């Protein structure tokens, strides 16, 4: 390469087209005895590279050298250009006053086209500092000059920046127009880094307009583009944290933010980015229920923003700090005043977060009994209910509900809660992935709780039932969006299965598996990411619960829905055309008792644990007092359906004395039971029997069941591979899967059944056109579920119910493999005689030997649904 003027000048645009190549060429220039002008350019390129992708201290050294060389070259425009680059670096280093002074000199030294570029970069710095009005003014001055000179690259950058500023103040339509115009210009250039930034910006715009799946897809695409260029993605991490939190994935957002902070610290990167990442981590920790971590991160962010003179950002960090302190249990008049002051400053900035701060001030004031003060703050927050993005409208409706409660208007509370949850329903149904639909419901938990409190105070059991159903198992009210015929997703699932199978084999043989586990986690992230891109295709809100229809379809059955209000269980007993309410015990006591029962069942699954049986039965009697109370005497003689809250999904209901001899089924919600009750079996359906590897009994019931059914499809040995199993399960009338079950509390949709070629996971089941009408899962822990969101459950059972399955038999505890075989054979005998799953399971329990192991095995299994 020669050090001619043209080739050296090409380095500046190259740093955002191919950063690595630009850095290498700049270093080559400096080794070729360049003139002061060319050396200035090379040092500026290296300064930009270090500023954005490396060590900020090294960047400042290069840029100061570039400034001095530009002065020696006696080029005013060259000096102005370097001063602008140096100004950006100084601001990112937290030296705001020095950075702005550098810009003042740059604007004064530059002229025409160069001054326009300086103004663009100062506009960027104003945006970083949160001075949006000043940013828009500098862009307004720069754009006409950049357009007149035909500078497409800098024009596109200016349009992208203006769009980003518009987003910061909530002007989404203006931002969309600027992003669109910028993207057209980028397509005419070779600026690959800028193109990746444009994709990232479109992801941010999609998020601001409420399209989370599109936002996640675009941010992932941007990350791939940055990855090809080998450049860090700190701003992308900040934006993805925001989207992940809106999707209900706060723990993932916290992990991402903390990892980015650690990388930034190792690199010696930008102080401004670190402050923003700390703010993102604080928000994520607060949303994840970790207020102590949120306080530490937010306080650190406040200190950095203050030192950087970034008032807009500092105020947002103070809001999170106050929220975290309140979540940690602090209440004081000082906190009310602090929240109100933050709300006022946010409003002056035009920030969409202002209503959130007013709501916070109102909440604290209410908790302190300052009703008149609370009303002032809540009235301000309530104004946001009529417009803006979904979170702002939900904030407004939450404020309105609290105002109504303080005024003693139960009707007002219910109206506000209904409107607020309608907003969230609209948002939820844009999500195609069942995981996101479930997790995002946490954003409506306060509204749901307020509505239940108001319903309980009103004294109407039916109204309490309707509101409990309004916010229970909403993810089951409509089937998840089926993944498209995506070869990449299918490939990732296949690779995941292979790696998981190899890891399992290595564990059995005692070989080290860290590399396999890392690859398995990487594939899990890839699969989750692709499913999160799915957009919801279900109109409306899914099926809405109808209490009259439920009561009509119950016939002689009784349905007991357990609602939890302010920590106490209330039993809503439905049947005989009415709903009655009975008081139960405290939820915390019931959860603790259920854990004792689970421990006892684990011990009873092995010979020698008989001494635990009386203790387990005594715990069952205590659970009945806590969870059924006086309702136990009013269950009638017919079938019973139990609808527990998420926290009680592992209760072995057949252990409770009042339920032990009954036809008993369990359902995540009354609405899902009703849908299962009305689901028709497939015409000409067939039975499918699957036997996975590694079972202690070898799945001994399967050969006998094959003889019983005659025409059943039997998959075992090498035939029991996931693709073939899914093919046969699709549309089957009855499926019996004898396979090891694995529950993943950390990632419930990766809960699995072990097949010959690896795990059959929940994501695989979601690819079925229609899951089997009845499914029997005969191994341990197949009914275990993870409680997420407001009161949602994720796992194998809840994945199957919206896909066409009307009934499932599964176990919520470890079971004795040998004792399972006679239980399953007796169960199928009842099905062959025309009984429902619940009826057949009741009879199968009764037919078992009267010893502790067989009794515990029977209690561990439950019938879900209504088939």
Describe the structure in brief.
This protein is an alpha/beta fold. Helix content is 62%, strand content 9%. A hairpin with a 3-residue loop joins strand 13 and strand 14.
Verbal overview:
The mean pLDDT is 88. The protein is globular. By secondary structure, it is of the alpha/beta class. It has 4 domains: 2-244, Tetratricopeptide repeat domain (Serine Threonine Protein Phosphatase 5, Tetratricopeptide repeat), CATH 1.25.40; 275-476, Tetratricopeptide repeat domain (Serine Threonine Protein Phosphatase 5, Tetratricopeptide repeat, Alpha Horseshoe); 487-533; 584-866, Rossmann fold, CATH 3.40.50. It has 39 helices and 16 strands. A hairpin with a 2-residue loop joins strand 1 (558-565) and strand 2. The strands form 4 sheets. Strands 7-6-8-12-15-16 form a 6-stranded mixed beta sheet, with helices on both faces. Strands 3-2-1-4-5 form a 5-stranded mixed beta sheet. A 3-stranded antiparallel beta sheet has the order 9-10-11. This is CHAT domain-containing protein. Residues 618-864 form the CHAT domain. Pfam families: CHAT.
Query: What's the architecture of the largest domain, going by CATH?
Result: 3-Layer(aba) Sandwich
Adjacency order of strands in the biggest sheet: 7-6-8-12-15-16
Count of separate structural domains: 4
Largest β-sheet summary: 6 strands, mixed
Q: Which outline best applies?
A: globular
Strand content: 5-15%
CATH topology of the largest domain: Rossmann fold
Radius of gyration in whole Å, from Cα?
A: 31 Å
Give the fraction of residues assigned to helices.
55-70%
CATH class of the largest domain: Alpha Beta
Mean pLDDT: 88
- Structural category is alpha/beta
Q: Please tally the helical runs, counting DSSP H or I stretches of 4 or more residues.
A: 39
**Unreliable segments of 5+ consecutive residues:** none
- In total, the number of strands is 16
Termini, distance in Å? Answer: 76 Å
